[in-house]
Design goal:
mainly alpha; 207 residues; 9 helices; single chain
Length: 207
């Protein structure tokens, strides 16, 4: 089962397994419909129909479609963290050092851009509404990666490291979005330039 979003994004947290499975179906339906009709045409009723649940079940968890999109973004972040963690565990030890870790961070982000339903619109929460930055999702991503990678890299998760990862996340986010504007599946040349830029920048702090 996919991760359940943090309870702060929900009206009511699921307690029983059946309730958690219903929430998962609702978010899956939301993601699929975002790809099919976009955010403006998305409705809670359409999500309920697609998920095969009563409309009241949707409102039990979410007051509106924005709250649903926020929960989907949170689930994306949880899933992304899991994927990066799995990559690092598979590498074992230092697994090639920080460069391999950065490759895992970038590769898994691109993989989700290509394959995760609804991700192109929602990703980690910074796309809806377009230009909205009040929730500062890249700060959440950078903090999550700092906490995850500091142990792997045997570095103290201090302010310098958090600032470094925030700049790296902001840079990667902008350039990966550029790659997917240039080509539907992400322009490989832009992606490789992004990888080279991140390595050059992070080498100043991590080498």
């Amino acid at each position: 089962m996919k991760p359940v979003p943090h309870t702060t994004s929900l009206r009511r947290a699921p307690v029983q397994r059946r309730s958690a499975e219903r929430l998962t179906r609702i978010l899956d339906a939301c993601a699929d419909l975002l790809d099919e009709v976009g955010y403006d045409a998305l409705s809670t009723r359409a999500v309920a129909v697609r998920a095969g649940v009563p409309i009241g079940s949707v409102y039990r968890f979410f007051g509106n479609k924005r709250a649903m999109a926020d929960a989907l973004a949170q689930r994306n972040l949880e899933r992304y963290t899991e994927r990066v963690t799995e990559r690092l565990e598979e590498a074992g030890g230092d697994g090639g050092g920080w460069r391999a870790a950065v490759d895992a961070v970038l590769d898994e982000y691109i993989a989700m851009k290509r394959t995760a339903p609804g991700f192109s619109l929602v990703d980690f929460g910074n796309q809806i509404p377009v230009g909205s930055g009040h929730a500062e999702p890249n700060h959440r991503v950078a903090d999550r990666l700092t906490d995850l990678l500091s142990g792997y890299l045997a570095r103290e998760p201090d302010d310098e490291l958090r600032r470094t990862f925030l700049i790296a996340v902001e840079t990667a986010d902008s350039l990966v979005h550029l790659a997917f504007r240039v080509a539907p599946e992400g322009d490989e040349k832009v992606i490789e330039e992004t990888r080279a830029l991140l390595r050059a920048y992070l080498a100043r702090v991590l080498d």
